[in-house]
UniProtKB/TrEMBL annotation:
It comes from Psilocybe cubensis (Psychedelic mushroom). The lineage of its organism: Eukaryota, Fungi, Dikarya, Basidiomycota, Agaricomycotina. Keywords: Flavoprotein, FMN, mRNA processing, NAD, NADP, Oxidoreductase, tRNA processing. Belongs to the Dus family. Dus1 subfamily. InterPro entries: Aldolase_TIM, DUS-like_FMN-bd, tRNA_hU_synthase_CS. This is tRNA-dihydrouridine(16/17) synthase [NAD(P)(+)].
Amino acid sequence: MAETTPEITSRRKLSGYELYRDVLGSPKYVVAPMVEQSELAWRKLSRRYGAQLIYSPMINAKMFVDSTNKTYRRANFDLISGEEGDPTIDRPLIVQFCANDPEQLLASAKVVEDHCDAVDLNLGCPQDIAKRGRYGSFLQDDWDLIYKLINILHTNLSIPVTAKFRVFPTVEKTVEYAKMLEQAGAQILTCHGRLREQRGQLTGLADWDKIRAVKQAVSVPVFANGNILYQSDIDACLKATGCDGVMSAEGQLYNPALFAGIEHPLDSPDYDSDEQILIRHPRHADLALEYLDVVMSLKTTTSVGGIKGHLFKIMRPGLLRELDLRDKLGKVKINPKKVKECLGAYRTVCEEMKARMERDEQAVKGTPLKDLITVEPITGIKVMPHWLAQPYFRPSPEQKEAYALANGLEEATEDSVATSPSKSKRPLEEPTEVGDDTKRARLVLEETNGARITESLQGNVIPA
C-alpha cells in the first residue's frame, strides 16, 4: 500500500479504544449518517431519546473543499452559527465524508477538525449517485485508493479517522477488507452487513455472521449496522455479533425514541406495560411537534427537505390513514431563506394529526396497548397502534407474491392486505426471546404453496 508522508501533529493521536472510551463515552447506541436526515436538529432530538453517538450527514468532500461554495458548506456543516459540533449541545459527534481524492478529503476534514471527535469515511453508499461520483461502496474494489484516503487522515489530522463499509459476498474477503481498513489507520469500524447490491426492494437481511467475523478479526471497536427495528433486535444484535455498539439508520429515523428507556430489562414483568411502551414508542404527533420546536430553537437553519422528510417519516402510521393530511403536508411550500417564519404551516398539520390520533386513542380507552399490537401479515412483524412512533418495513416482491398466492389474490397491495383474512388483526403473542421480530420476519413465509421463500426482511435500513 502507498503511504503518505506524515505531518507532525501537536498532540498524540488517540487509538481506537481510547477514542471509544475516553472521548465518545463507550457508546452502544449510535445514529447513522443519513443524507439530509441526521442534521443538527435531528441530532439534538435523538440525544433526548437515548442516542449516545451521532454522525453528521454524509458530506461530499469534492464540493465541501471549495471554500467559495459557501452555500454547500453552510448547508452541510454550519461553522458560522457555531452550534454544530458545540461541546455543550452536539457531542459526541463524528463527521462523515465521501471522497475519492485524498488531498480533497484531507482539506475538507481540516475544516471540521476542531468541531468534532473524529472524521468518518463513507465506504457504504450504494446509490446511483455514488456510482456516478465514484465514492461510497463503489470504491470497494480499489483498496489502494481506500488505504490512501484513510491513511492521509490518520497521518495528518489531530483527531482519529473511522470508516463505515459494506460486506463482500464471502466472510474471508470481508475480514481481509476490514483488516486493511484498520491497517490504514481507521480507529473505529462500522460494518453494514449488506452487500453493495442490497438496496431498495433488494435490501434483504444484513448478515450478522459477517459482522461477528469482522469484530473477531480486528483490534479496534466495531459498530454493527443492519436489521434493527425494535429494542429486542438491538439486544439480539449485540449478543450475536459481540460488537461494541449498534448503529441504526431507518429504524431510528421512523422512531427517534428507538433507544429510549433501553436500560429497562426485556424480561421485566412490566416491559409491555403502557408506561414502558410509550417510552419506546411515543405518540408520533408529539414527536413531530417536538422536532419542530427543536428546529425553531436553533440558530442553524434546517433544510426544508430535511424538515418535510422527517415529518413524513415520523407520522407515517397516521398519514397512511389521514390522506388529506398527507396531501396537505406534501403541498406545504416553504421559503428556504425564511424557514422559521414559515414553520407554522407544518405545525398546523402536526396539531391536526395530534387531534385525530387523540380521537382514535380515546376510542379504545381502557384497552392495554399490548392488546392493540397487531401483526403485519406479509412479513410477520409486529405493528404498534397507529398513533405511536414505530419502524417502517417494506415487504419484498417475493414476500408479496407468496402472500398473494396463499390468500388467492392476484397481487398483494396495501388495500388487499388490509381487507383479506390474515393474522393482522390478532394480538401479537408474547415474545419468547429477544430478536423475535426479526426472526419472525425471516421465517413467516418460508413455506408457501410448497415453494421455499428466501429468509429475508426487505428494505429496513437506509443504505449508507
